[in-house]
Amino acid sequence: MNLTKNTILITGGTSGIGLEFAKQLSELGNKIIVTGRDQAKLERARKSLPKIITIQSDVADAKSIRALYDKVTSEHPELNILINNAGIMRTLNVHEQSDVEDFTREIDTNLVGPIRMVKQFLPHLKKRQAAAIVNVSSGLAFVPLPSSPVYCATKAGLHSFTMSLRVQLKKTNVKVFELAPPATKTELLGDMSEEDMKGISIMGVEAMVAAAIRGMTSDQFEIRPGQANQLKFMSRLAPEFILSQLSKPVDRMLARMKH
Ligand SMILES: NC(=O)c1ccc[n+]([C@@H]2O[C@H](COP(=O)([O-])OP(=O)(O)OC[C@H]3O[C@@H](n4cnc5c(N)ncnc54)[C@H](OP(=O)(O)O)[C@@H]3O)[C@@H](O)[C@H]2O)c1
Q: Which of 35, 37, 104 to mutate to test the pocket of ligand 1 (most atoms within 8 A of CB)?
């Protein structure tokens, strides 16, 4: 995929991986539009990258997606790449008392959100000469980290949806990429304890996004930088072993609990 002179919409582009995508893709000569919920973060992003366009929008809200579609396609009809990047990750304990609706909150943002974005923007993307959808999943799509059970389920779901989408779009001009990042140094990891992160190496966000851009440029449709590649490999070669390695934080938590 040629990564210059495109118009690219990045959901959740106000920090971490999304903001770094905005920076590197803007430097390559693309027009960049980023979204996020928090207006102050959108303003900070625009201050740090004055060329980008920012729009407040929530991927977990269907009405907000429709409003985003109307605004972007009327103001930037040349839009041809959608990067579904917005995501949240939480450590959740099924034994703890919590609200049922809140327990599934990651599903609305990480799985329903990207699927709705694809459904909303696909007719427009199909009209462009060359277009792409990039779904940002995770290395944890291939094997779960049981301390974040709902998050990992959303990423496995997004991985599956992306494979089906790629097959359904194979005869169109829309390329379908999946970026499965490894643990990457961003705000998202803020909820994870040191114990959760033991044995996991953390990739710098600049290097991770540079690897993603290299993968897209060479039409590598499933991009698995760093340890994400090892997770996929181990999930095939030794699934029980890799799950037991990633279960250590939860094993420690269960050992501390009275049942
Ligand atoms: N960092 C990692 O280790 C890692 C590893 C694998 C995969 N990933 C994936 O990479 C993606 C980006 O994560 P990150 O690490 O860059 O996290 P981050 O620094 O926390 O950034 C998340 C971005 O998403 C936005 N966002 C959150 N909920 C949203 C919503 N409902 N609607 C619109 N925007 C929303 C945030 O802005 P607002 O809060 O203002 O909305 C922010 O701009 C996520 O899908 C994540 O699951 C990250």
A: 37
Return the residue matching tokens 């609990």.
Answer: 257
Please determine, looking at this structure, whether the domain spanning 7-256 carries the CATH number 3.40.390.30.
no
Burial of 101 (C-beta count, 10 Å sphere; 0-12/13-18/19+): exposed
Pick the catalytic residue from 21, 69, 142, 151.
151
Q: Token digits for 92? A: 């959740």
Polymer length of the chain? 259
Show the CA angle centred on residue 97, arms to residues 95 and 102, nearest 5°.
105
Total-model pTM = 0.97
Residue 132 parent element (H or E): strand 131-136
Model confidence over 77-89: pLDDT tens digits?
999 999 999 999 9
Are residues 82 and 47 in contact, defined by beta-carbon separation less than 8 angstroms?
no
Q: Please report, as a single letter, which amino acid is at residue 152.
A: C
Ligand 1 close to Cβ of residue 35 (< 6 A): yes
How close is the Cα of 84 to the center of ligand 1, in Å?
Answer: 10
Q: Is 69 a catalytic residue?
A: no
**Ligand 1 atom nearest to 109, measured from its CA:** 31
Q: Is 225's C-beta closer than 6 angstroms to any atom of ligand 1?
A: no
Per the structure block, which two tokens stand in for 157? 């779901």
Q: Sketch the domain layout of the chain as residue ranges.
A: 7-256
Work out which ligand 1 atom sits closest to the CA atom of 59: 32
pLDDT in tens, 167-225: 999 999 999 999 999 999 999 988 676 666 767 889 999 999 999 999 999 999 999 99
Distance CA 248, CA 145 (A): 9
